[in-house]
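Journal club side-thread
Mid-discussion, someone asked how the predicted structure for our own chain would compare to the paper's figures. Pasting it here so we can look after the session.
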Amino acid sequence: MLQPRLRLRPSAVVLSTLARSETRTPAVRRWASLLVHQHLTGSGPGAFVPYDDADAAQEKLRSRLLAWKTLPDDEPPRPHLLSFEATPTLTLGRRQTDLTSTQTSRFRAPLRVALPHRRDAVPEQTFIPDVRQTARGGLTTYHGPGQLVLWPVLDMHSPLYARYSVMSYAAHLEATTRRVLTDLFGLQTYTTRDEPGVWVPTPEGQPARKIAAMGVHHRRHVTALGIAVNVDVPVEGPEEVNPWARFVPCGLEGKLVTSVAAELGGGLKDWDMASLAARWAELFEEGLRDEAKRDVEGEVSSGLRRAVV
């Protein structure tokens, strides 16, 4: 079974240099001198990143921000965005009880992964999924190949940009994702008052389909976790190839998970995850600088509805 490690080039810079300086490598970009975007990559086919390595990088950044808030004797740290494509991992919400042995065996059964719908197709590999407890709300969800995970690490009350509330921050994550899906893939999406994340419209009488899941944690107004967009992750088929068949995603009975590839059929071809992440970072940066772009233009703010925190 394949268990790739986080590649030292270029993503290890987040573990080795961010605490010391603002030095950049080509993979670490400063968007309009405000948002610092790091797209993490791992070794092996697909360059998938172990969830634990991404989490360690996130905690390094978050600790730096929290330390500054305790002793703000320098300029405020800039907001960061970590993006990555994880090795297969099922994550549990903070209020979930321990899994039964049957659930654990089901979650950790071998998973076959093949991703043909991209510029550089990923050949079939077999993984043993990890299971991790997280600080977010909600129930079980999945991160893995074919899904773009986006974790902004920022101070919602930073003097560098207009303040966020918990709800307006959630709305910004959703709005950025919706803009990317429309701009790059022509997909129409919506959000709801009752269920966080991004959804694809379905005909009346058919189950709702979620294309991006959101889970956020805040500590002293410093964010962690974020949003995950299903690009070409399998969403159909038996449990051996479709991880979503192993559980009820986020506990949403009667609702489905979808992906860009599933919505477009065979229309998803010439793209790559790093470029998609870069576009998301660019649009998120716009919302940092301009409050009006923290929601989808022409819609009532989604900040009134519940967010997963």
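Post-session note: Residues 28-304 form a domain with the BirA Bifunctional Protein; domain 2 fold (CATH 3.30.930.10).
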